[in-house]
C-alpha cells in the first residue's frame, strides 16, 4: 500500500484555528473525561475523549468525517502528530480495520458518522499502546489508497483513506492473504501488577475476576449519566478482587486492570492459564424496558432459560465482532468425550456458585425475577473452570444506574460476593471437590 506524504503550508490564520481545535480537544481530554483512558467511542455516542499520558506520547485524533456513496467513500481524520497505520480485513460482516498506535479520540458524532459504504464506525483502545478504527460495510470493500498530508508546517497531519467496493472473491483474497494476529494479553493482578501464567501455589483458591467490555467495546450506556458499562465493570472488578483477596488462601486476579479490549476467548484462556478455580464475569447491561431493575446471575447452557437471557447472551457475544476480531469456531477439544464430561461437572459447580451468590444477595441487593438464569455466553465456555456472569443491575434503569456508580454500593456488593465464594468453597471442600 502506497503512503503519500505532502507538505502544504497555508496562511497563519488557518494555523491558529488548527491550534485552537487541538487545544480545545486536549482540554476535553484532560478535564471533561479524565476517567476514560484511551478515548473510546462508538458512532452515535457523544464526544468521547481520553486522558493524555504524562509524556504526551499518544496521538490525538481531534477531527474526522466521511463522504461518499454506495460505491466509494473517503475517510478523513486529523491528528496532532503523524499517524502510523496498518490496514486489515475481517469478514462476517465485512470490516476494514485501521490499526493505530495509542490514540486519544476527540471526534464528534455529527462529524465522524458512518456514511456511504459504511453502516457503522467504532474506534478506541485495543490494548496498551494500540488503538483501532473499525469500519463495517454491508458489502465487500477495500482500501484503495491512503495518504498522510502534513498540514500547517507540521502542526497537524491529515489521514485520508479512500475505499471502494470489491467482489466477494477479491475480499476473500484480502482476508486470506494477510499475515497478522491479535496481540496476546498478560494477566493483571488486583493491584495492577502483571501476573504470568503457570503454576499456582498448592492450596490456593484462584479466582479470575473479569470486567466485561473495555477499550473499543464500551458496552451499555447509562440512561442518566452516560456512564459506559466498561467503566462500571472495571470499578466493580477491582472491588471484588480486593474483597476476595481478604479470604484465607485465596488469590483473585483481574483479566484486565485498565481500559483495554480483551476478546472473549482471551478472557477464558486467561482464567485457564492460571488454573483458576472460578471465573466471575461482571456486567451491567441495558434493556428496552427501563422499569426492570435488579441483579441476575447467569450460568452456561446450550438452551436459554428465557428470551431475556437469550437476547442478553446474543448481545454480549457480539463483543469480538464490535472490535473487529475474526470470529473463530470452537477448538477441536470440544468434541472430546472427556472434555464433555468435564464440562458437565463444571456446569454443576457453576450452578452451585450461582445459588450461593443469589442467597448472599437476598435481602441485601435487589434481584430480578428468577435471578438465576442461563444462556450460551461465550465467556462462560471454559470446560474446566466453573464460571458465572453477574449482571449487577441495568444501566437503563435510573435507580440501578445510581447504585452501580456508587463506590459504597460497589464495596458492599463486593463483600457479599466474597461471602458467597467463601461458602461455595466450603461446600465444595466438604463434598470432596
From TrEMBL:
Keywords associated with the record: Hydrolase, Signal
Pfam annotation, one family: AMIN
Record's catalysed reaction(s): Hydrolyzes the link between N-acetylmuramoyl residues and L-amino acid residues in certain cell-wall glycopeptides
An annotated GO BP: peptidoglycan catabolic process
Cited SUPFAM superfamilies: Zn-dependent exopeptidases
Domain MurNAc-LAA: 268-422
Protein name, per record: N-acetylmuramoyl-L-alanine amidase
Organism per entry: Rhizobium subbaraonis
Amino acid at each position: 500500500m502506497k503512503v503519500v506524504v505532502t507538505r502544504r503550508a497555508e496562511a497563519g490564520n488557518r494555523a491558529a484555528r488548527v491550534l485552537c481545535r487541538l487545544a480545545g480537544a486536549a482540554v476535553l481530554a484532560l478535564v471533561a473525561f479524565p476517567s476514560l483512558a484511551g478515548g473510546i467511542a462508538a458512532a452515535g455516542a457523544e464526544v468521547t475523549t481520553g486522558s493524555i499520558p504524562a509524556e504526551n506520547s499518544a496521538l490525538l485524533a481531534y477531527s474526522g468525517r466521511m463522504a461518499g456513496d454506495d460505491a466509494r467513500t473517503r475517510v478523513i481524520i486529523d491528528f496532532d502528530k503523524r499517524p502510523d497505520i496498518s490496514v486489515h480485513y475481517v469478514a462476517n460482516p465485512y470490516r476494514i480495520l485501521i490499526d493505530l498506535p495509542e490514540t486519544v479520540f476527540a471526534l464528534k458524532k455529527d462529524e465522524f458518522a458512518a456514511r456511504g459504504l459504511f453502516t457503522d464506525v467504532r474506534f478506541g483502545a485495543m490494548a496498551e499502546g494500540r488503538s483501532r478504527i473499525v469500519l463495517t460495510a454491508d458489502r465487500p470493500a477495500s482500501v484503495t489508497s491512503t495518504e498522510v498530508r502534513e498540514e500547517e508546517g507540521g502542526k497537524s497531519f491529515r489521514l485520508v483513506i479512500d475505499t471502494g467496493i470489491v467482489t466477494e472473491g477479491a475480499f476473500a483474497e484480502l482476508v486470506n492473504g494477510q499475515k497478522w494476529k491479535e496481540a496476546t494479553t498478560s494477566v493483571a493482578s488486583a493491584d495492577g501488577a502483571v501476573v504470568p501464567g503457570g503454576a499456582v501455589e498448592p492450596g490456593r483458591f484462584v479466582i479470575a475476576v473479569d470486567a466485561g467490555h473495555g477499550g473499543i467495546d464500551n458496552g451499555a450506556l447509562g440512561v442518566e449519566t452516560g456512564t459506559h458499562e466498561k467503566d462500571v465493570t472495571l470499578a466493580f472488578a477491582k472491588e471484588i478482587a480486593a474483597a476476595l483477596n481478604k479470604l484465607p488462601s485465596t488469590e483473585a486476579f483481574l483479566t484486565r486492570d485498565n481500559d483495554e479490549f480483551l476478546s472473549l476467548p482471551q478472557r477464558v484462556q486467561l482464567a485457564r492459564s492460571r488454573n483458576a478455580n472460578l471465573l466471575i464475569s461482571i456486567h451491567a447491561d441495558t434493556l428496552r424496558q427501563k422499569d426492570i431493575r435488579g441483579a441476575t446471575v447467569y450460568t452456561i447452557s446450550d438452551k436459554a432459560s428465557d428470551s431475556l437471557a437469550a437476547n442478553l447472551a446474543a448481545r454480549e457475544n457480539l463483543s469480538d465482532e464490535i472490535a473487529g476480531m475474526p470470529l473463530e469456531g470452537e477448538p477441536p477439544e470440544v468434541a472430546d468425550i472427556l472434555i464433555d464430561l468435564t464440562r458437565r461437572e463444571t456446569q454443576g459447580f457453576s450452578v452451585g456458585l450461582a445459588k450461593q451468590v443469589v442467597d448472599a444477595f437476598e435481602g441485601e441487593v435487589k434481584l430480578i425475577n428468577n435471578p438465576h438464569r442461563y444462556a450460551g455466553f461465550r465467556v462462560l465456555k471454559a470446560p474446566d473452570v466453573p464460571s458465572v456472569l453477574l449482571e449487577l443491575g441495568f444501566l437503563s434503569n435510573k435507580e440501578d444506574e445510581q447504585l452501580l456508580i456508587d463506590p459504597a454500593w460497589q464495596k458492599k456488593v463486593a463483600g457479599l460476593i466474597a461471602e458467597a465464594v467463601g461458602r461455595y468453597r466450603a461446600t465444595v471442600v466438604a463434598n470432596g471437590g
